[in-house]
Amino acid sequence: MELPVFDQHESDAMNFLATFHYLAAPDEHKHFGRAALACHITQPALSNALRALEAEFGAVIVKRGRNFKGFTAEGRRVLASAQRMLHEREMLQPELDSGLGKPQGLISIGAAPTALPIARAVFRCAQNPLTRYRAKRSIHELERT
């Protein structure tokens, strides 16, 4: 399967979820180093991602000092939005995964009358909620549907 090609703007938008994950990590771990470790990146990479996010929004999001000091008022708003988006993505992925490799829609197959019981048994074994199966006795019946 060939992967789609994205321009820079689309690529930036796709990285937004990763950046939101980086934003949520300091809130969870209350420490830049532990947050970076949890994200499997270096602390400077985490800081750079947060600065890029601040540049994107044109607002200071993270209170900085020698240690993590929390979020600004604007940062709390961005964090709340980021957490909602991350939650939505988390809820969507299993739903999408459940349909991978499974046919969707209506599948019709023509079978000789003597093979119809076998075709129906195969359909019952392969049943999934995204697919409807229909067996027809002749090619003419199949063409009419």
CATH architecture of the largest domain: Orthogonal Bundle
Count of distinct strands: 2
Please work out how many helical segments DSSP would assign: 6
Largest β sheet strand count, sense and barrel closure: 2 strands, parallel
> At the first level of CATH, what is the class of the largest domain?
Mainly Alpha
Rg of Cα set:
25 Å
How many domains? The number is 2
- CATH fold call of the largest domain: Arc Repressor Mutant, subunit A
Strand content: 5-15%
What number is the mean pLDDT? 79
Low-confidence runs of at least 5 consecutive residues: 1-6
- CATH homology-level superfamily of the largest domain: Winged helix-like DNA-binding domain superfamily/Winged helix DNA-binding domain
State the helical fraction: 55-70%
Describe the global form: rod-shaped
How would you spell out the order of helices and strands? Answer: HHHHEHEH
**Based on helices, strands and strand pairing, what is the structural class?**
mainly alpha
Distance between the termini: 31 Å
User: What spatial order of strands do you see in the largest sheet?
Assistant: 1-2
Key terms for this structure?
single chain, 145 residues, Arc Repressor Mutant, subunit A, two-stranded parallel sheet, 6 helices, 2 strands, rod-shaped, disordered N terminus
